[in-house]
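Render this sequence as a predicted structure.
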Amino acid sequence: MKFIVNSTALLRELQKLNGVTSSNNTLPILDNFLLDINSNNMTIIASDLETTMMSTISVEADVDGKITIPARILIDTLKTFSNQPLTFIVNTETFGIEMSSEMGNYKLAGQNANEFPKTPKLNGSSTTTIKGDILANAINKTLFASGNDELRPVMSGMFCELSTEQITFVATDAHKLVRHTRTDISSDKTASFIVPKKPLTILKNNISDDADIKLVFNDTNALFTFNNITIICRLIDGKYPNYEAVIPKDNPNKLTIETASLLSSIKRVSIYANKTTHQIRLKIAGSELQITSEDLDFANKAEERLSCQYEGTDMEIGFNSKFVIDMLNNIGAEQISLEMSAPNRAGIILPLDGLEEGENTLMLVMPVMLNN
């Protein structure tokens, strides 16, 4: 089997797929890309068993066929080439591969493509379409709030809730929570599923804003298709927590402030906080917000005062600064509202601008107990 492909085009596609290949694969063949040639189109496939990604490019081939080729050595070699045609000759009996460039020849050992895991088929599936910029925005605003606890796998991904009226994206690690809703997209049927973090990160890094993304899903897998790329992932099995139950409905104390000034103030003050708890204290009285932190072990202490708009009773509440910084970094608004009911109840952060038509974002952060 012989085929000719452009080096730059091949490298571009392989780098997209390289995020799927894992450094600790259970099957050695997963360290390879699967190249499947059919009618001068080559489909490149990478998999870690949980996530499979495919990309298609044009080649000149004498026959149809497939081979697996080691990912690392191929990418490292392609990075060193200028833009040029490369010729691959594959021995279909020994799976030996010879690659020829303008400068020389390179030999490497492939493996039998039939040993590569089969791509999952989605039977009994449903379909919806989402614009690339809408999905990228949803991932950016929610995924940072998902957890890493292996004992609670359902919290390690993004919960997608589809209905005939809207789509809701949720992520939480039990300390912080984000609910992002779009009323300008909907599904023809009601469904919900949890997508793992890895395929979402790969998706976010590869989608273009103007792409229409076709989402196909069933009870076990989700498939995203756009341009020449397909990503299939196994969904996280389990029941997602009742996130609506933890969002306080009545929050009479409302603080309005510029995001940038609050963020930079918390970043500075948190440097002096305890390195285990990262605790900061917010004291709100009238139109003044006082932010303090201290680390008694090292006699470190910091305090800043900011002016703000505030409606409600004077209040003192503690938060983990890392969680608040994460939220302010991802909220995408110049002004935010912090709504609270009591020092032992969750605080709600809402963007006051920067939202598109049909977009709604709510961020929730659990308080930490203050030591008086």
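Summary. Residues 259-270 form the longest helix (12 residues). The longest strand covers residues 51-58.
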